[in-house]
Amino acid sequence: MNIKIIILSAILVVFLSINNAAYSQMSEINFPLNPDANVYKQYTDESDVYYKNGLDFLNSNQYSKAIDAFEKALNLTPDRVNTRINLAAAYINRGTYFYSQLKDFDKAASDYRNAIYILKYDNNTPNSDVAAENLGIAKADLDNLLKAEQISTAKSSRLKMARILKGQGKFKDALVEFYESLEGNQTDFPIYIAIGDVSVVLQNEKNAVKYYQKAVAYNTNNTDLHLKLARSLSNSGDNENAIKEYDIALKTVKKENKIEVLQDMENLWVKKLQENPQDASAHMNLGVVLQKKGDFEGALKEYQFAEAINPNDITTRLNIGTLFQAKKEYTTAINAYDTILQVNPENLLAHYYKGTALRDIGQLDDAVKEFQFVLSRDSANANAKEALFDTIKQFPNDQDVSAIFKTFADNNPTDAVAQYKYGFHLHSLKRLDEALDYYKKTVVLDPKFVDAYLNMAVVYKEQNQPSNAVSALQCGLKIAPKNQKLKELLASLTSETVTSRYQNALKKHNQKKYDEAIKEYLSIIQISEPDADLYVNLGAAYQASRKLNEAANAYIKATQIDSKNSTAFYYLGTVYSAQGKNSDASKAYQKALVLDPANDDIKLALASSSQAIKDGALQKGINEYNKGKYSEALLTFNTLSMKDQNNGNIYYYRGMVYDALKKYQLAIADYKLAVKFKPDLSYAYYAIAVDYDTLKNYPEAKKWYNFFVGTSKDKTDQYVKYAKDRIKQI
């Protein structure tokens, strides 16, 4: 019959909900006259004694003794539903006592968690109304307890609590909290791992396997996770899947941990042989493990055992061949492969391994034939392809290498790898146009072939076609948006391209080749981040070529990118003035003046007087720069450069402003113009070098540091010393 135990009402003082934990009581035991009678057998084992003692203690509110008795009963018969239900009830009632009478939060919470664990997360969890009722009571009491102690019940808080409990060695408590933190967040694989780890400690290997498998599904490349899963599979008796996980882990495990993995695998196969000494497969697999450990003699012994038990197993003979090959006994290895081919001439693995052995002893032509045989039967065999290409590269004559690569590519026109390898070979010979053709063939056949996009970009770069290089990389990134190599090369090319094109645009601009300058500015805009100053320069080129509408649009675009760019508003005003739109011009000047109220250029422009600002404008710009008024300085130098296009000092100081604004590419372009018109301006060389250094373009940085050192008259100057130091460092 079921009875109720009344939980002490004193707990109401701390605002916890009061729940009565139900428990199941067994009828009085009457020992049978026939002790072997099955009808009585389930009531006469040792666990019954502990169970009845537990009930007695529970009825007399001796919860700790009841828990001890029920635990002993449960250890003997873990599938007994009544034992589990009453053990949970004892924990719930003791938890309530701990908090209501002793004010011991930790012990109370632990007891509630133990009840939850027993009823929900342990093996053999009961499926009954009483169990469900007690589980609800335990969960509610734990939640109310946390709230009474003003402890958050949010998932993040439960996760933090779980980690603390795990660190304290309270694994059942921790497991309950990990599960609580997981509810409603079923894709958090670190929690899966934690549940698996705790389950291992609690010797619940099947549960560990379940959650390690969930974690692996979200992180397939985690070597440690595969190892954990393998060990739990092994401990739960699933050796077949354990071996699969060990094999996966072995491919990526760190070198220093490889022996540990191999030892686990060895132990597994030894255990299988202890169960069945005549298991040929186990002998062979143990041999494979020993071979990987470097124990060639032990491996050979196991292979021989396997072959004696199953003399027709070709895999064992293959392994014997690879063993002798690893020992560099190539003739013996080749003989082993030949014995397989005598029986089965079509065995591709035997041909493949024979080819690798022939390659290792320098018989390259014969090795190539073996690999070609494999590929004639299995054109997608990646190992055979790679071995073939590796062998071809070992031929001493470049013409022979080229001929073989070309033949293979021509004979396999739909094989992306064949096209790529020949393209790569042509690339190494600097036959760039031909290499490019084969790289293009590669991506047509396999659009996901990332290395082909990378090498296409490199070829275009070597051909001084940066736009095409950038385009190739962008195509690659559409396929593999997270590929770091593609990202890094694109960033480098974009930086170089923008700097080069900007310099070229300024050159065309200063040569009054405005249409060409405009074309360059527009091309820079297509491959770089939106930049207001770039649009200002585009507008200036349009304005100089009397394309006033286009100039106005460019300045407007600059103000849209940077609504605080006083220069853009100022130049927009000059365009409107030239168009006779005096009202619009006045509005533009006024906006510029609001942004830069102290700037005399804008004031004078607003007053339709520009002549008065010409004298001393360069020094004015320098003073503005020294005071940190970079917008004013930039406006001054831009104005001056439009009026005096061959003045190196203007470009030098404008470059300093760009440096202060961290627009290093624009600064570099100005410094180069500075030394063009004033070659003795040695500090401009230094500034160029430092900016390239900042952009991590070290070859250019080193070149310009050398220019600076060579042109500097004072060899003891601190900047010269720094330049020399950097030349050595990079």
Strand content: under 5%
Per CATH, the class of the domain at 2-151 reads Mainly Alpha
Distance between the termini: 86 Å
Binned, the helix content reads over 70%
Q: Give the oligomer, counting copies of the same chain as homo and different chains as hetero.
A: single chain
The neighbouring-strand order within the major sheet is 1-2
Count the DSSP helices.
Answer: 39
> What is the molecular shape?
flat
Radius of gyration: 40 Å
Uncertain segments: 1-20, 22-43, 609-615
Question: Could you please say which CATH topology of the domain at 2-151 applies here?
Answer: Hyaluronidase domain-like
Reported for the largest beta sheet, the result is:
2 strands, antiparallel
How would you characterize this protein structure?
- With 730 residues, this protein is mostly helical.
- Among the domains are: 2-151, Hyaluronidase domain-like, CATH 1.10.3450; 683-730, no CATH class.
- It contains 39 helices and 2 strands.
- Strands 1-2 form a two-stranded antiparallel ribbon.
- α9 packs antiparallel against α10 and α18 runs parallel beside α20 (382-392).
